[in-house]
Amino acid sequence: MKKSARNTFLPTDRAGMTARGWDELDILFVTGDAYVDHPSFGTPLLARLLEAAGFRVGILAQPDWRDLDALRIMGRPRLCAAISAGAMDSMVNHYTAAKKIRRDDAYTPGGQAGARPNRAVIAYTAAIKGAFKGLPTVIGGIEASLRRLAHYDYWDNKVRRSVLVDSKADLLLYGMAETALTAVAKRLADGEAIETIRDLRGSAVLVDSCPETAVQLPSFDEVAKDLSAYNTAFRLTSEHTNPFHGRPLAQQHGNRWVLVQPPALPLRPEELDRIYALPFQKQPHPDYTDRIPAYDQIKFSITSHRGCFGGCAFCAIAHHQGKTIQSRSIASITAEVDRLTRHPEFRGTISDVGGPTANMYGLHCGDPQSEQACRRSSCLYPKPCRHLVQSDRLAVKLLHAIHDNPAVKHLFIASGIRYDLLPKQPTYFDELLAHHVGGLLKVAPEAACETVTRVMHKPGPDQFAFFLEHFRQRSQALGRRQAVVPYLISGHPGTTLADMVETALFLKRHRLKVEQVQDFTPTPGSLSTCLYYTGSDPFSGAPITVPKSEHERKLQKALLLWHLPANRKLVDEALRLAGRQDARTELLDAPPKGPTGQRRTTRRRR
Ligand code: SF4
Predict the structure, then answer these.
(1) I need a labelling partner for 303 at 20 to 30 A (CA). Which of 37, 76, 241, 498 fits?
(2) Ligand 1, atom 6, residue with closest C-alpha
(3) Whole-number Å distance between alpha carbons of 117 and 120
(4) Which CATH number covers residue 21?
């Protein structure tokens, strides 16, 4: 790539700074991911936003945290360092659910593992503090967000302190952080000391005493040794996630307090539009010679919205992006499509238009007063809220508008969809099945046994069966060969071997064969992780069975993969332990009724 093309990226070294006529940076971004100048990646998105606000920003992507000189290549920044582990928690990135080291990393050139440290937020912050004494440090991203309070850590198998305490950073910004980080940069530029920035929504800081206005959570010491105190802290935290009425939370750590301000207010469409109109190059930095797998996946995809109101127990998206759906305008999205069609590698296919859940685009709470006072974690579970506007009008309009671009030959939906919205979104599903399934449609029932879906806060097996029937009938009527890819979790809290037998029988009866199953990982911040750790529901106090032994988890997984010959012995054992030998013939010996409607599942990580 020519020098001039390199200079369209944000600086990553002195040469990039010199090309812009800068002798110093205002803000140094440090990230555990490779630098892909794309709004799907948090660090480039924030860096471009601050660039647009007039700040001189540079990006240190996957620096060697053991080499202080490597951190100093762009010199000491004038205002602060903004530090993130990257798009994933570094421990999730490094280890499987069985705590085995992963051999790959989708966010690194060549998919190579090992480019970032374990507990990257702590390691990078320590390194930056070593390289630049006294420089204000701001931590953010998914790892910092979900570890902002004392939390159970699966890899250490203990409750850890807030990452703010362990990293010794000056400020933690949780959530998407556009508004908060811009405010921090402006206030630092105005000469304010970082120690006095204590009032920002979406921030956490260390203070000397518990403010009167804050909700006092059980302390770190209490939650570390008392399971019911842990549950109380989780419940109180959940009650204050609504940005419209949430109060600050305070949790004592030693002789100091972690003070977490209420979440940021959702961005308006015009604010999101402005962000997505920034001059992203939509490419990895030209210095990389190897492909970056995560980039290949999103290269021709479009983010239409953020947030999710599904409230699945194992998912922490709502704790990071919020429950409110924040949608871009159709004009902004089609303008991005237009730019994408001029990408040198574009061949007519948009691989995805969506967000955490594709068919939530444009949906919202229809009663602003109720929304402001709302304490539900899900607008859909246990049943759809009467205030939820579920109309597919905008989502359908969006699909049509993108397809109106003559350069777009194919438009696929690869983001997950909520199939329980089908009854209220008939036109969207018709359009989806007729034009936007690239052979396989990802859906996430996660389990097909009522007792488990209830713990997961997911729609039950009846709704999944209804959707499957509709999918197959419509696909057949349309003459399209396409199948559903069901995502399933084994080993989730509340799941017994008998429940997994039920799920396996459901799959067989509905002619679904899966090739990969997600073994539950208790990641920081989710309700499921709280259930896993405490063994009881933080809201009802009801005890929950937690499959923890490696062998039981193996048996659960084998049941969902009953059709693999290598699993036959394990399936036999699981059936015997569950007292379900009666299911053996149906599961292992009887041929599935009708043609197999399923080809394979794909890998995913949470
Ligand atoms: S009132 Fe209902 S629709 Fe509105 S935010 Fe709450 S749960 Fe969702």
Answers:
(1) 241
(2) 374
(3) 5
(4) 3.40.50.280
Best of 238, 326, 376 for a ligand 1 pocket test (most atoms within 8 Å of beta carbon): 376
Q: Is residue 110 part of a domain?
A: yes
Structurally, the chain folds into a number of domains equal to 3
What's the gap between Cα 254 and its chain centre? 31
Distance 309 CA to ligand 1 centre (A): 9
Residue 61 in domain: yes
Q: Residue 6: which pLDDT band, with cuts at 50, 70 and 90?
A: confident
CA–centroid distance, 193 to ligand 1, in Å, is 39
| Residue range 514-542, pLDDT digits in tens | 878 999 999 999 999 999 999 999 999 99
The 10s digit of each residue's pLDDT in 539-578 is: 999 999 999 999 999 999 999 999 999 999 999 999 999 9
Q: State CA 215 to chain mean position distance.
A: 27
Residues with C-beta less than 6 Å from any ligand 1 atom? 309, 365, 370-371, 374, 376, 379, 385, 387-388
* 4 Cα to the center of ligand 1, angstroms: 50
Atom 8, ligand 1: residue with shortest CA distance: 379
What domain range includes position 446? 440-606
Q: What share of the chain is helix, strand, coil (3-state, %, to 5)?
A: 40, 15, 45
Whole-number Å distance between alpha carbons of 108 and 35: 9
> Does the residue 241 lie in any domain?
no
Q: Is residue 318 part of a domain?
A: no
Of ligand 1's listed atoms, the one at least distance from the Cα of 375 is 6
Atom nearest to 323 CA in ligand 1: 5
Indicate the average pLDDT of the chain.
Answer: 94
* Together in a domain, 471 and 577: yes
The Cα–Cα gap between 594 and 483 comes to 14
Checking DSSP bridges between strand 203-207 and strand 256-260, what pairing results, if any?
antiparallel
The pLDDT of residue 606 is 36
Q: 454 and 378 share a domain?
A: no
Cα(461) to centroid of ligand 1, in Å?
24
Question: Which ligand 1 atom minimizes the distance to the CA of 370?
Answer: 1
Distance 328 CA to ligand 1 centre (A): 20
Q: How far apart are CA 334 and CA 404, in angstroms?
A: 9
* Alpha-helical segments (H) within 457-496: 461-478
Q: How far apart are the first and last CA of the chain?
A: 35
At 64, is the pLDDT very low, low, confident or very high (cuts 50, 70, 90)? Answer: very high
Q: What is the mean pLDDT of residues 210-231?
A: 97
